[in-house]
Each structure stands twice: as C-alpha cells, then as structure tokens.
Amino acid sequence: MRVTQRKSFDALDNAPRMTGEAAECLLKGELLLRKFQCYDVVSDNGVDLRVDGRDAQGNLLSKKVQVTTGTAHDTTEGAFVITKKASKVREDVDIVAVHVRGNHNGCNSGQVGMQDMWFFIPNDVYADTRMFRYYNTNVTSWYVQINKTFKPPLDKAFNAWWVFNRSQESLEKETESFFD
Prior knowledge:
The chain contains 5 helices and 7 strands; from the N terminus they run ααββββββαβαα. By secondary structure, the protein is of the alpha+beta class. The chain has one domain: 3-Layer(aba) Sandwich (Trna Endonuclease, Chain: A, domain 1). Strands 1, 2, 3, 4, 5, 6 and 7 form a 7-stranded mixed sheet that branches. β1 and β2 form a beta hairpin. The N and C termini lie far apart (62 Å).
C-alpha cells in the first residue's frame, strides 16, 4: 500500500492572495478557539458574520462583522493593500475585521515569521476622519505596513479580540482611546 503525505494548508499559506471567503473561514476558526460563538448570515450583503461574546457580567453581546483582507503590495515588502472603503461599510456593521497574512519582523507582535494578523476596528473608528491621518479608509484602497510600528488606531485594533466582549455603548465610549 502506497502512503501519500496528507495535504495541509501549506498551499493556502503560500497563496499569493487570500480571498475574503478564506479570511472569513480563518476568522471563524480563531473565534471558536477563543470560545466565541459565530454565525454565518443568511444573505452576505455587507455583513459576513455575527459574533456573540459576553461582557463581564455574562450578558450576551452580538456583533455584526464585515471581513476584508489585505493583498501584498507588488513592490513594497511588508505592505498590504486593503480595498474596503469606509463608505462601503454598512452603518449597522459593528466591527470591520481586517486580515493580513504576511512575513512579520516582530515589531508589533513580538513574533517573527509568517502569521495571520487581525485588526478589529469598530465601525465608528473605521469611518472617523482621524483614521485618515495614517490610514485613509475614505478612498478605494488603503495600505498597512506590517514591518513598521502600527500607528493609531491600528495599534489598538491589532489582535483586539476584546472588542467582541464590549457592549456597543462601551465601544462608542472607547472610540477616543483608539486615537491616543
């Protein structure tokens, strides 16, 4: 009997471009590992997932999430293009989840090498004019450089899994902290 090596996600790891659908699958897996509940929406019309978290008192908190992914920039190593204009995000979306898969030098995460990086940006922050200072989400595509220290608000949004355990009122109050 001939034994063949089982195919893994190596092909996905080396893919030149991550699709939004693949990023959604990765996010669902990460959310489940972190004990969140996540649900596909019946009609993907600007909301990709519903995520349920819990506040400190155990109250159920449900978030509508729009997932987008970055594509490696052709000429700048460590730069990714995100094609999600703020005006294209529905007003009822709570969190914009931006995924970037890249070879990181460790300046933001402390980890070096290929990794999936997540930015969880409350919609109020994503559309705030202060975001445009470093990341202009008001245009068709904007850029993030993963091998340079993140600037506000991405520094706070990076791996901010805690946003799923905050009420909408709490997130609105914390908007200012994303720009400190």
